[in-house]
């Protein structure tokens, strides 16, 4: 379609602005409008902070609210409204960038935007630009090989505890993202599966106040930061 803008889903990496890809930087610099997700409780965006060295002062930044609730109807309405807001900019001929932490296809709010855009504006031109994930950044920070030879890797969320870990079969390595809410159950699952002895937690990888915690029991004595992940292996 003529005079219609393009949407770019851009991964800005785990936290270090130098870990943004060259392609992502180029697209960010050329954007007419920048979108990013923010909680309804605040308007802060770590993704925007990471990308800020590459965002022109003249570019408008729009923070889209994604409610942190289990109310399916409320969440669905927010996703649709956010997609409609993006679609309106594209229809004006604006090129839009949706910034997301890590990679846009890995536990990202951009996934919800993609699904809703397919319904609201199926003709939209959309390009996804991958980014470095938190677990890749953490393994590099630790000089720890994630997987080699014929080994396998499970990437899972720890937001609801350790049940996914308990049911692994034949998996030698695990990356647990969002290891902040149910750390006690995650620790218990790692001990039950024999993974705890080679487990390490990394919080705020590559950012100010980065922490590396080798004794996971220490995580139970504090409130783990939201940006905490665990790498574990047999």
Describe it for me?
The structure is a single chain. The protein is an alpha/beta fold and 234 residues long. It has two domains: 6-129, Tetrapyrrole methylase, N-terminal domain (Cobalt-precorrin-4 Transmethylase, domain 1, 3-Layer(aba) Sandwich); 134-233, Tetrapyrrole methylase, C-terminal domain (Methyltransferase, Cobalt-precorrin-4 Transmethylase, Domain 2, 2-Layer Sandwich). It is 29% helix and 22% strand. It is built from seven helices and ten strands. It has a five-stranded parallel β-sheet, sandwiched between helices. Strand 6 (153-157), helix 6 and strand 7 form a beta-alpha-beta unit. Helix 3 packs across helix 4 (110-120). The termini are far apart. 36% of the residues are buried. The model has no long low-confidence stretch (mean pLDDT 92).
């Amino acid at each position: 379609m003529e005079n219609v803008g393009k949407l770019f889903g851009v991964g800005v990496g785990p936290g270090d602005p130098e870990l943004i890809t060259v392609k992502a930087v180029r697209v960010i610099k050329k954007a007419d409008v920048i979108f990013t997700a923010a909680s309804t409780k605040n308007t802060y965006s770590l993704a925007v902070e990471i990308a800020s060295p590459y965002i022109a002062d003249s570019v408008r930044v729009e923070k889209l609210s994604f409610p942190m609730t289990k109310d399916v109807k409320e969440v669905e309405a927010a996703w649709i409204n956010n997609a409609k807001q993006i679609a309106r900019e594209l229809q004006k001929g604006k090129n839009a960038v949706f910034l997301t932490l890590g990679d846009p296809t890995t536990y990202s709010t951009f996934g919800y935007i993609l699904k809703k855009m397919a319904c609201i504006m199926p003709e939209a031109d959309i390009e996804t630009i991958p980014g470095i994930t938190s677990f890749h950044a953490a393994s590099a920070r630790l000089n720890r090989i994630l997987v080699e030879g014929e080994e396998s890797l499970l990437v899972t969320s720890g937001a609801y505890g350790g049940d996914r870990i308990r049911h692994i079969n034949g998996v030698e390595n695990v990356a647990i993202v969002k290891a902040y809410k149910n750390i006690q159950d995650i620790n218990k699952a790692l001990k039950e599966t024999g993974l705890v002895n080679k487990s390490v937690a990394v919080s705020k990888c590559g950012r100010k106040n980065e922490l590396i915690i080798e004794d996971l029991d220490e995580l139970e004595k504090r409130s783990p930061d939201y940006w905490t992940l665990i790498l574990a292996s047999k």
